[in-house]
Design a protein that fits this description.
Layout: E1 33-34, H1 46-55, H2 68-78, E2 85-88, H3 90-102, E3 108-113, H4 118-125, E4 129-134, H5 143-148, E5 154-160, H6 172-181, E6 187-191, H7 206-212, E7 216-221, E8 234-237, H8 240-248, H9 257-268, H10 270-294, E9 305-308, H11 314-323, E10 326-327, E11 329-331, E12 335-339, H12 343-354
Parallel strand pairs: 1-10, 3-4, 3-5, 5-6, 6-7
Antiparallel strand pairs: 2-8, 7-8, 9-12, 11-12
Helix pairs in contact: 1-9, 2-9, 3-4, 3-8, 10-12
The chain binds pyridoxal-5'-phosphate.
Pyridoxal-5'-phosphate binds next to α3.
């Protein structure tokens, strides 16, 4: 049979489109706020601006392909050997490298649902099959069901803690029980994109869990707490063989020179950035308390967002937010995710939420 156009991989037919958070649109006379992508509301630190400015002088040159200085800085920060760090174009970039490193067509990737919508995309791109295990009524991972979902074809389980979009964290004891039940040849990824907002003392120390388990790796990002979403840089903590595989699957020169410099500078400014995170957590606590006072019964968020599983009221809720100049993230009839943003945005959001509060 002759074809009128280039043949594309049939696996692409199974790739869902990524729906980015809507940009902020303002009704007349109202400041609009983007609460749809879990971004950091703070502007870049002056030291980061300075290093970016300096970095502009050399953008005619390729970046250090091995990201040597950044990897050394991350390794020192995390307290591991540089051989155990891999960097990528955001943790989404690394997720793609993970699936490329582990999955042939038809292999399975297990994750909770809802969880991060990049997971089914990176799986489908590799021709792998997504196995979605529903979260429970408290919006938490059902680790027992997830362990039971592991088959001969499973190559990766992705655990997201705090879970995007539901905000809940895994606890140390349940994670240990899960790891004991999962075969050692299945890679377990702990996605900690929102680590810096966690205050639950029962949350595991993922690096400690990684150290104790040869099939575990940790995924982190500079996009959220560090406020560098636009620069695209994240990292993995992985045992040697996995880390080496991730490096093989990296886009050559993918992490650009400005991103490398800004990430190094941001690790140096960690304390200052954590003061900002603490302020975001304080705002989260204020929003959560405000919602409780309105009568909402929320699942516990440990991230920089709150989750409203409102069923068929999702569209009206998201629309009311938008009418108030607040862009939020709607997931069909599953729920609406609202990022903790600027103080004024959070206050305005509480006013909108009041109109939907349970009687
Ligand atoms: C935002 C987010 C990331 C980070 O993505 P980057 O590519 O690093 O910007 C990773 N995992 C989850 C669950 C997220 O919500």
């Amino acid at each position: 049979m002759s074809h009128e156009s280039p043949r594309l991989r049939s696996a692409l037919d199974a790739v869902p489109a990524y729906v980015p958070g809507k940009p902020a649109v303002a009704p007349a006379g109202v400041t609009a706020y983007k609460l749809s992508s879990n971004e950091n509301p703070y502007p870049p630190l002056d030291v980061v601006r300075a290093v970016l400015d300096k970095g502009l002088d050399t953008i005619n040159r390729y970046p250090d392909m091995a990201s040597t200085d950044l990897i050394a800085a991350i390794a020192a920060f995390v307290g591991v050997d540089p051989s155990n760090i891999a960097v990528g174009t955001g943790s989404v970039g690394i997720l793609g490298q993970i699936i490329q490193s582990t999955c042939d067509a038809g292999d399975e990737v297990v994750f909770a649902w809802r969880s991060f919508e990049a997971y089914p995309i990176v799986a489908a791109l590799a021709g792998a099959v997504s196995v979605r295990v529903p979260v429970d009524a408290d919006q938490r991972h059902q680790l027992g069901l997830m362990a039971a979902a592991v088959t001969e074809r499973t190559r990766v389980v992705i655990l997201c803690s705090p879970n995007n979009p539901t905000g809940t964290v895994l606890h140390r004891a349940e994670l240990e029980e899960f790891l004991a039940a999962v075969p050692r040849d299945v890679l377990v990824v702990l996605d900690e994109a929102y680590l810096e907002f966690v205050r639950d003392p029962e949350a595991p120390d993922a690096v400690e869990v990684w150290r104790a388990n040869p099939n575990v790796m940790v995924l982190r990002t500079f996009s959220k707490a560090y406020g560098l979403a636009g620069l695209r840089v994240g990292y993995a903590v992985a045992h040697d063989a996995v880390a080496a595989a991730l490096r093989k699957c990296a886009v050559p020169f993918g992490v650009n020179s400005l991103a490398q410099a800004a990430a190094i500078e941001s690790l140096g400014a960690y304390d200052e950035l954590m003061v900002r995170c603490a302020a975001i957590v304080a705002e989260r606590d204020r929003v959560v308390a405000g919602l409780a006072a309105q009568g909402w019964q929320m699942s516990e968020t440990q991230a920089n967002f709150v989750w409203f599983p409102l069923g068929e009221r999702c569209t009206a809720f998201a629309q009311a937010c938008q009418d108030a100049g607040l862009m939020v993230r709607q997931y069909g009839d599953d729920g609406v995710r609202v990022t903790i943003g600027e103080v004024e945005a959070n206050t305005r959001f509480l006013e909108v939420a009041r109109g939907f509060a349970p009687a």
